[in-house]
Description:
By secondary structure, the chain is α+β, with helices and mostly antiparallel strands. Helices cover 59% and strands 12% of the residues.
Amino acid sequence: xxxxxxxxxxxxxxxxxxxxxxxxxxxxxxxxxxxxxxxxxxxxxxxxxxxxxxxxxxxxxxxxxxxxxxxxxxxxxxxxxxxxxxxxxxxxxxxxxxxxxxxxxxxxxxxxxxxxxxxxxxxxxxxxxxxxxxxxxxxxxxxxxxxxxxxxxxxxxxxxxxxxxxxxxxxxxxxxxxxxxxxxxxxxxxxxxxxxxxxxxxxxxxxxxxxxxxxxxxxxxxxxxxxxxxxxxxxxxxxxxxxxxxxxxxxxxxxxxxxxxxxxxxxxxxxxxxxxxxxxxxxxxxxxxxxxxxxxxxxxxxxxxxxxxxxxxxxxxxxxxxxxxxxxxxxxx
Length: 333
C-alpha cells in the first residue's frame, strides 16, 4: 500500500510510517493503520458509519476509498482525496467507491516523529545567541552578514532533512506548494535530480557545510574578514553551477535554490564592498581549517547514519513483505 499524499498531508515521516505499519502484527488491517497513526502522534478513533451520516463528519477524516486508506477533505460540494495520489471526487462518486469505515483524527499543528529528537528548540536558541551577540558586539553589516548565514543554515538543514523522506513545511511554502503536493514541484525536481556526489554528499549538503562554517567564522569578524571574503567569492562558482543546472539542464527554476542564491549574492556584496582593510592571520587560517574539517566530518557522519537507518528500514520492510507473502501463500494453499 502506498500513502504518499496522505503521509505528506499529515506531515509524517514516510519511512517511519511505512515501517511501523508493515511491522504491525495486524498488517494491513484498519487496526494496524490506526495504531500506526497513534504511535506517530495522530490521535484517532475508528467507526463503521453509514453513508447517510457522512454529512455530519468533520471537514477532514480518513476513509477507505478505492480499497486504499485515504484522507478525505471536504471542499465545497466536492471532496479532495489524498492517498497514493491527490484527486477530487464528487459526493456520489466518493460514496460509491468507499466503504463505511471512517477514522476521525486530531491533527496537531506540528506533528513530529516521536522516535526523533526535536533539535529545533536548541537550534533556535543557538541562532538567538548568535544574533544577539552580532547586533550588540559587532557592526550592523557584520550582524546582517551573520543573519544571512543563519538563514542559509536553516534552509540547508530543511533540505538535508527532506532528503531522507521527511516533509518540510518551510520548503513547501517557499516553493509555493502545500505539503500534500510538495513532491510534484520544481524545487523537489531540481533537488532530487542532483547528481553531485562527493564522498556521498550532495550539492545541497555542501550548502549546509558552507553556511555553518560562515556562521561560526562570522562571529570572529573583522578578524576573519579576509577568509570570509575569499569564501564568498568562491561561492560565485556554486551560483553559476546552480543557475546553469536550473536554466539549461532541468529547464525549470527552483524557488528555494534561488533563495539560497540570493543569500549568497547578499553576502558577496557585503564582503566585497564593506569588508575593507583586511589582514591575513595564521590563527584565522588555522581556525578555518579545523572548523571546516569538523563541520564536514559531522555532516558526513549524520548523512551516513541516516542513510544506514533508511537502508535498514527498507531491508526490514522487504523481510516483512516476504513474510506476508509466505503467510498468504500458506493460507491460499
